[in-house]
Records
---
Amino acid sequence: MKIRFKRSILVLSFLGLATFVEAQAIGGLSNAMTIALATVVLLILLVAITLVGDTFLRVEAREIGADESKANYSIFPRLSEIFGTRRASHLLGKNVVDLKKGHDILLEGAAEKVIDTNFAAKTFAVRPRDFVGMSPIPKVVVEKGDEVKAGDVLFYDKKRPDIKYVAPVSGEIVDVTRAEKRAIDQVIILADKEQSYRAYNKPVLEELDRENLITFLMETGLWSFIRQRPFDVVADPGDNPKAIFVSTFDSAPLAPDMNFALKGREADFQMGLNVLGRLTDGKVHLGIDGRAKSNPAAIFTEATGVHKTWFNGPHPSGNVGIQIHHTDPINKGDVVWHMNPQDVAILGRLFNEGIFKPERVVAITGAELKQPRYVRVPMGASVENMLKDNIKGEDKIRVVSGDVLTGRQIGEKDYLGFFDDQLTVLFENDNYAMFGWLSPFAIVPSVSNTFPGAVLKEMEYRAETNTHGEHRALVVTGQYESVLPMDVYPQHLIKAILVNDFERMEGLGIYELAPEDVALCEFACTSKTEVQKILREGLETMREQG
């Protein structure tokens, strides 16, 4: 290598010298012209030597097996190194994934980081339809008037009877409501003032093999918190996932801050990670927030027994599906599991204290609230008291269990969803807007550069329900691809789902996606297409096909 490099320099030097001498021999040339010509020759020589040196440097890097995707083995800096975002000091030396695609929707009404200790919900509900793929009529083992303890079985899926769904609190079963076609809608519990818990022999994790651990988690109701990709359903205990993922932050609008929500739960969270580590032969991946100027909480950065990756970029960088795609992508036949970080702490508490206590810190958010706040409640809590005396004006409102992109509309006396840790209140705007989306001065959140938001990057908006346009024909615009940081073609995938083209659905990456991953595509869609609904239908079709 060194000999070839030296020979190249000698040849180039000889050619440059010969050119210079020839220039001197030409009669009639002025001294200025001679100097200019010599300067050009020297510059050409310098550039040639530099290019040759760069080429040999990169060849040498390949020969020794260096990974050029992770480091720059070149004399010249990459454009991303010159114009790219400068990382915060706490990210230096970390495993960081920089995401460029996406969009942050800034809304008014973020919850103040104070937990309202005066709040207490009276009734709670568990809804079978929160669990995708469950039989519409599961086997309910309780009746109206029964007394239950937290952790007692309420119902189970007839297709997978070993997985139990349990009571979040102790109290009286006040109703088992039904929906269309006699499907079970929800099991409602009036909570006791003093909670009692189903007793378990406090398990010793090290003494449990994987089979007995899975059996224990299914009996206690903790298994229902573990979900799997593909299909985004409750995990199949018969599978052995290639990896388990936990995203420690949520980048959705007004989402709860997990650093705050899990403050003081370090021991439970670490124990939960230890349990997950026993469920897979692969790695437990921890996705950590790389967007902030300071390091996230130590509960995440100092966790042990996990593979940590920092994600830097706009929403949906906090989605576990995006993190899976950039860390250990799902191919046909692969299965991965994932879990919410607050649920990991609930899992850890079961092993630390021997009780099932599914408490979450829930963010009550929205510009329509007098006091956006956090509350600590068991899952499935009634939202009635959360909203009582906390609505600002007389405008009509819409209550959403979850965030504005993926949440489900509920009534003001309804209940939080099983997996939800956020309640959002929106302005129910059914007013007609003159010229609709044609007005370039409309103050609305948008990914389009024709609206003021393209310039006012830090502006927060009042969330409302007006779609500013009607449903239109689905056309290929490239909007979906511009906000989805994955190597898939979502617009073509949606078309394949609409025509039931199974081969194209599979080839276009449907196994990697869940509805929450394409929620931003739906927000950006000019055609007002219900992208999440269509994707869910496609996933169910593929799951039924086996």
---
Amino acid sequence: MSATDSQKKRIRELVTTLNCASEKYYAQDDEIMSNFEYDRLYDELVSLEAETGYVLANSPTVNVGYESVDELPREKHDKPMLSLGKTKDRNELREWLGGHEGILSWKLDGLTVVITYFDGKLAKAITRGNGEIGEVVTNNARAFINLPHSIEYKGELVIRGEAVISYSDFEQINSTIPDESARFKNPRNLCSGAVRQLDPSVTAKRMVRFFAFNLVSAPGVDFGDRHMAEFEFLKEQGFDVVDHMIVTEDTIISSIEEYERRIRTYDIPSDGLVLLLDEISYGESLGMTAKFPRNAIAFKWTDETKDTTLRKIEWSASRTGLINPVAIFDPVELEGTTVSRASVHNISIVRALKLGLGDTIRVYKANMIIPQIAENLTCSDDLEIPSSCPVCSGATYLKENEGTAYLYCSNPGCPAKKLGAFTQFVSRDAMNMDGLSEATIEKFIAGGMIHSFTDLYHLDRFRDRITGMEGFGEKSYENLIASIETSRNTELHRLLYAIGIENVGVATAKLICRHFGYDPEAIAHAGEEELSEIDGIGSVIASGVCGYFADPVHMRIWNELLGEITLADMSTEVGEQKLAGLSFVVTGSLQHYSNRNELKEVIEKLGGKVTGSVTGKTECLINNDSTSNSTKNRSARELGVKVLTEDEFIAQYID
């Protein structure tokens, strides 16, 4: 089997198209192609994968077994992973080449992983660790979105590469976290945590990508003594290889300048470049120092710094009440652009920098992109932390999160908080009111048209004002009112999520509603102890729910909203809870259900729980291929857990 470039390109196109269609259909209730068209493209993908042996990790034909582990096992690397010597001097790199050709590539800023394939199948993945011993993350690597599960080469292939999360994916992930203090600080930290998860399903949601940068071994393949040929071989096998180019003494300076231009818009985090001697035997003949190999060297960007004067701190209130400090300073030129402001992130950093207005500060661009304060040369340390919110003048308070201090507004009626609350209330997973963007909500709040959630259901009182607003007309107004009227018919878990109880997301809202039989009165008067006993609801969430409904204002809002809407009859959802307290694992293809999610919903409606891995607490493993030697089947046999076919499960637990 051999995949041509055109076949690989077509496979990637099909995977992207089919995954997009599935996301639209299952997550957004939207259909961008017919079932016939989906099946036709799916069959084409299956045929191409079978013909070429080229299967991507995120292919819809791959059923990734997201098996959680209790801890990550550790394993010694066959070959120690040494660090590279470093320089910031471009001329030193030219001299280092010594007349030989080199390969210049990005030094990606993520987590290094060593991956092994046996007989064309992904078999093992280990993090760099301390260079000698790393953590085994094989299940997580199977969730890297661009990593092949199978390749053409059938020998034992060992490669090294960088697991990374792009800036755009990082921003998208952070945008789903309402509390800004809980957001991830940078892509590298997010990636490191994602790769080292105990639950691979979490890794799968983090959009981790893998870029190969070194072929450790591929017995039987002749690379003509060139690392460049290794890179080409890896690309032929379907790997994304770190961006690279051949350089000489004459071209290396201009090549570095080219990378320097590109990094300003490059979507993958990078903190420098790597220069590798292309000739393998010559590079190996140089040996290594006690710490570094001599066939490669890292180039670190020299951070351009400028001294300037801090003029003010702008305190910016967010939707959650978090107040962020932003430093405003005299404009300076950095990396080709003019900058005059930089986020200081939190109060702990303000204190560490000992800031004061008028201080001389040294600024730079982290990774040549994000303006930061490197140090404070004056350290007057007399900056006043505001005692009142810049938006509403309400009292502020400090709150610590894992040792870091943040400033918050205490006023529940703060317009900044109100905007965030309304934005969540109308969102797709909540009341799903189309036509109410954040900008529109802000105008309605400023115009005094909405003060509480129930006001949204009476916007018809302001017809003339709304149709006269910029960007609105009769048609926009009618569509908005129609969407709001449609939202009156909803499900209780949507309402529970919509009102914005801290830490209560969509999944948590469903758990609570199901436990209380979709009874809004029972939920509002539930005790903390009973809530804590719900599987998946801890004491923090239980305390938050009880605290919310203990507030008479919140209780009034809840009751007013119930008077505005009609709740769907969820009696079939509640049903007889005959599977209460039982945990099941589902694997493999199904015959009676369209997919595993459908069977999962049936089990959950009956009070059961579906988990990703077999443990001693598992009631049974559902697998139509009950005699297979899969990991889940082996675990079930070792733990004495029943393995039932779909028919056997239905007969014993459903009928």
---
Amino acid sequence: MHTRRRDLLGWAASGSLAAAPPLSILASACRSAGEREAELHAEVVVLGGGLGGCAAALAACRRGRSVVLVEPDLWLGGQLTSQAVPADENAAIETGGSTASYRELRERIRAHYRDHRGLTPAAHASARLNPGGGFVSNFCCDPLAALAGLDELLAPHVEAGRLRLLLEHELVRADLEGDRVRAVVVRDREGVERVLRAPVFLEATEEGEGLPLLGIEHVIGAEGRGEHGEPSAPETADPLDQQAITWCFAMDHRPGEDHRGDAPEGWDRWGRFVPELTPPWPGPLLSLTGSHPVTLEPRQYGFVPPERGRSAPRTQHPNLFAYRQILNPEVHADGADLCAVTLVNWPQNDAMVTPLFGPGIGPAERARALREAREVSLCLLHWLRTECPRPDGGQGWPGLALRGDLLGTEDGLARRPYIREARRMRARFTVTEQHVSPVLRPEVDGVRRAARFEDSVGIGHYRIDLHPSTSGRNYVDLECLPFEVPFGALLPQRVENVLAAGKCMGSTHLTNGAYRLHPVEWGVGEAAGAAAALAVASGELPGVHASSSARLQALQEDLTRGGALLRWP
């Protein structure tokens, strides 16, 4: 493991981004990889190193607490890095639509581009630099740059000894005593197990896999309409109604080159696959026609890769290449020699057949779900190279090439699949459609606002965005008001010393579609980390902030001082 990490550092420094500085967090992990403590003690243990887990660890460390952060991958950052998903954000993100630390992360990533990527003078001076030029948000960057930004935030705490990273460690089991977690056992890639002990544990895993391990009651898939009275919920509960997962990949287009090869595994199935959905999908998945997420009517897409040195052009229909473009040659001083790079997380590579977990889903079924996600993505790439309609009437773009150098992989796909929907804890409070829908909220003084939570610990804004599901449901895409994050949604109903620090918070199948995005996940993690730090300092359980108005006020004031917004203007 030590050698593998060192080799990856060397690879990252010698690849196409040779100007990138060493990743000091990984270097620190390398230095400690040989340590074989059988038992580690900390004040806070964070399970999961995605955006929520990183925010939680940062918040606790900045408040002087000792933290162990456990992550199964070699990369921290979850959906922004190892899953390779450019940030989905709200329109106010630059000035006040997130916590100050999330905006600090964005600025550190921008600084990485200015310091190490050779930008043009105009791009270097741009206060709102969009390095990739994609239009999914005003900030599209490549995963290596995002990893460097996270490194800058967390490295000082690693170096000071407050933060201990256990990368490439899987959760194994937990030691429970009544309604408290006493310890968690993790295992590294070489089979070495460690016992982690702390007064407070934070669940920030990508799939909510810590919930069953920690003995926390939870929900999988869709609740029935009768459980919370949500008008848009299905009539009956279906744990296998889970949003599609996506195995993202990065690619550029090199005119004059031919990267076509034999048809990939699964082509006989996916090459002409028509999703069986309700309402119906309009035709083959691998095409430039899909369902419009809101109206569910057929929607036409465009696909035209840019010329070398240029950003993706506008097309009559939305150009998929431009959608999540993560490298824009036009902002680089040597851009004339560069090819634009796009991140492929499109309707066409949603894997919507086999659920990832739930009743009847064992190791074989899970492996099949992951295999299908990889096959769909590689078959989409083959289709783009060989059959995709071109504006000149021809078919296929043979010059499309995978860019695994930006994703930390040899096969060109992301390190991990993009998991939109985790297991969700049965929390003391659950955010429902009625709390955030403009159709369901009352009008006051001519304005409809999302529910106001007295225990708010953060804010967010995104549509209720559910991709097609493994139950055969097509999109559910609903308008959503700017919302708050209630502290009660971070607290399990029963287990006393665990907090949700990510997507496993108390939301429903529907509201998860709005609360799962990058800045909201970060904000949930930051709130959990701050609450854990205050609980440790006072010697109390985290739930005291919910049961004591004075403690709740102290938490909210602490978050506000740290740059979190608790209310929308």
